[in-house]
UniProtKB/TrEMBL annotation:
InterPro entries reported for this sequence: Integrase-like_N, TACO1_YebC-like_2nd/3rd_dom, TACO1_YebC_N, Transcrip_reg_TACO1-like, Transcrip_reg_TACO1-like_dom3, YebC-like
GO CC annotation terms, alphabetical: cytosol; mitochondrion
Pfam families registered for this protein in UniProt: TACO1_YebC_N, Transcrip_reg
Name of the protein in its database record: Unannotated protein
PANTHER family: TRANSCRIPTIONAL REGULATORY PROTEIN YEBC-RELATED, TRANSLATIONAL ACTIVATOR OF CYTOCHROME C OXIDASE 1
Organism: freshwater metagenome
Domain TACO1/YebC-like N-terminal, chain residue ranges per copy: 5-76
NCBIfam families reported in the protein's UniProt record: PRK00110.1 (NF001030), PRK12378.1 (NF009044), YebC/PmpR family DNA-binding transcriptional regulator (TIGR01033)
């Protein structure tokens, strides 16, 4: 699992995600609304909406709240015209970051993101300076206890492109549009999985081998994640599990 993915998982288990449930709900609802606006309100014909619908349900967002967001996206209810904007930059120690936002005020969001970078040892970069290091992929994390042959049989037939052993998990990757089909195939075959999402995977990673370096990068990532307009932060860093565990135990 990438450094950011591992850190997000640890925070969720620790309970930090529950403390910010209201903010998480708001971000997921916004993503549902935008997906419906871009591809229509039928999840069966809109892979992005189906993925976001499932993600919101897994986070315990009420069904009627999700359905209202879909209606705002399709124009049945009045909604906000959110714009998608991506910022590229560098965290301390040369770590590349992509910051994806949905906003109704680009000036506000741009100023906020720039301030977070500059006040925490990072810097914004020109468009294209960082994005070439990442590719958008559907990613499913499956417990390592699942039999590899069974997983390959089910996932590859459904459209998965690769299965990688990451220690505690299998990482299954596929094109973003195939994520709903691969997920559905795993569910039908009763293959358990920890998460299924569309994300940005780095081609190479910067290894952070000290607690000081990890703290500096994760502080910036967490502050960006906490911004109301930020929908996703993706980094090309990797942190040793023992360092992440130590940091997770701190207040």
């Amino acid at each position: 699992m990438s450094g950011h993915s591992k850190w997000a998982t640890i925070k969720h288990k620790k309970g930090a995600a529950d403390k910010k449930r209201g903010k998480l709900f708001a971000k997921l609802i916004k993503q549902v609304e935008v997906a419906a606006r871009q591809g229509g309100g039928d999840p069966n014909g809109n892979a992005s909406l189906r993925t976001m619908f499932q993600k919101a349900r897994e986070a315990s967002v009420p069904l009627d709240t999700i359905e209202r967001a879909v209606k705002r996206g399709t124009g049945e209810l009045e909604g906000v015209d959110y714009q998608s904007v991506t910022y590229e930059g560098y965290a301390p120690h040369g770590v590349a970051l992509l910051v994806e936002c949905l906003t109704d005020n680009r000036n506000r969001t741009g100023g906020d993101v720039r301030a977070i970078f500059s006040k925490n040892g990072g810097s914004l970069a020109e468009p294209g300076a960082v994005s070439w290091q990442f590719s958008r992929q559907g990613v499913i994390y499956v417990p390592r206890s699942v039999d590899e042959e069974q997983l390959m049989s089910v996932a590859l037939e459904a459209g998965a492109e690769d299965i990688v052993d990451e220690g505690e998990n299998w990482r299954v990757t596929c094109p973003p549009t195939d994520l709903p089909a691969v997920r559905a195939a795993l569910e039908e075959a009763a293959v358990p999985f920890d998460s299924a999402d569309v994300t940005m995977l780095p081609s190479t990673s910067v290894h952070l081998d000290s607690e000081v370096a990890a703290k500096a990068v994760l502080k910036l990532v967490d502050l960006l994640d906490d911004n109301d307009d930020v929908e996703g932060v993706y980094g090309n860093f990797d942190v040793a599990d023992e360092i992440l565990t130590t940091l997770s135990l701190e207040d």
